[in-house]
Design goal:
It is a single chain. The protein has 302 residues and is α/β, with parallel strands linked by helices. It contains eleven helices and eight strands. The chain has an eight-stranded mixed beta sheet with strand order 3-2-1-4-5-6-7-8, with helices on both faces. Strand 2, helix 2 and strand 3 form a beta-alpha-beta unit. The protein is globular, with a radius of gyration of 21 Å.
Length: 302
């Protein structure tokens, strides 16, 4: 399946705007459905950023326009990307409204970071064409996209979705089995829990923790991934030797890790106080961030 000529994006926040920019950079004509006044400006700004870092190459960009109705957005769209806020009622309501307006064969994908395809697609007549396509941010700058099917999603739909994303220059990873948060968010949640615990307890400042990650452990992760980094460190024995050698030390650390499953008031207050001490980093320009990620990817040989 080639890149669709017409694409609908439902919800044009940071993620939806990024999807719009990605498709438009590769020549698609995108219709946005979002009531926010800034939706079209945000999406077109994202397209400018995408082109600035080389997304789409020499392809003539497509267009991004606002649609005032769902039917108008869906008209002729071969790919529909739902990127509404993380509310099951909101997402299911929007998907239900698509029942009679979808083009034949259109793929419907949700950007959800926590919900299941089987939950969102339940009772939809297009359930066989529905899946989760979860990107990272900015969508057009990070190549990995996680795909996850429900039991009703057809193999043909998954195959076509993989083909489209590859044509868009992405690296789709099909997650087998439905997992809340898929893989990226589960890893992030695990790391953030321990990061929050260390910062709240005063073991390190927030800035020091970020330095340890960004200029320490993550340098190896960028080059080889979390598992690949340990395989390199273990030498010729690889991960098998690593597991044998470090099973007991790891168990000792695991027993000491944070185990809580929600932030209580005391820990939340401690975190907010620590975060107030961080160097100014909020409000980073998305284009600058995208350019930074593109440089890192190039330096890592991506």
């Amino acid at each position: 399946m080639s890149i669709p000529d017409r694409v609908a994006v439902i919800g044009a926040g940071e993620i939806g705007s990024g999807w719009a920019a990605l498709f438009a950079a590769h020549g698609s004509h995108v219709r946005l459905l979002d009531p926010a006044r800034r939706a079209i400006d945000r999406a077109r700004s994202a397209l400018d950023c995408a082109r600035r870092i080389g997304v789409g190459g020499d392809t003539k960009p497509g267009s991004i326009r606002i649609s005032r109705t769902l039917a108008g957005a869906l008209d002729g769209a071969g790919w529909v990307q739902e990127s509404l806020p993380e509310s099951e009622a909101l997402k299911r309501g929007a998907l239900a409204a698509m029942d009679d307006a979808l083009a034949d064969g259109a793929i419907v994908a949700s950007s959800t970071s926590a919900m299941l395809a089987s939950t969102l697609g339940k009772d939809r007549p297009f359930a066989d064409r529905f899946l989760i396509a979860h990107p990272l941010q900015p969508v057009y700058a990070v190549r990995i996209v996680e795909l996850c099917a429900s039991p009703e999603t057809s193999a043909d739909t998954m195959s076509r979705a993989v083909d489209v994303l590859r044509a868009l220059g992405r690296e789709p990873v099909v997650v087998r089995g439905e997992l809340p948060g898929l893989v990226a968010n589960r890893l992030t949640a695990a790391l953030l829990r321990e990061a929050f615990e260390l910062v709240a307890a005063g073991a390190v400042t927030a800035d020091e923790l970020d330095a340890i990650v960004a200029r320490g452990v993550a340098t190896g992760w960028t080059a080889a991934g979390a598992l690949g980094t340990e395989a390199v460190g273990a030498g010729a024995g690889g991960l098998a030797l690593f597991v044998e050698r470090f099973a007991d030390p790891l168990a000792e650390i695991w027993r000491s890790l944070a185990q809580w499953t929600e932030l209580d008031d005391a820990r939340r207050a401690a975190l907010l106080a620590r975060f107030a001490e961080m160097r100014a980093s909020d409000g980073r320009d998305e284009c600058e961030w995208a350019e930074t990620l593109a440089r890192i990817e190039r330096s890592a040989g991506g």
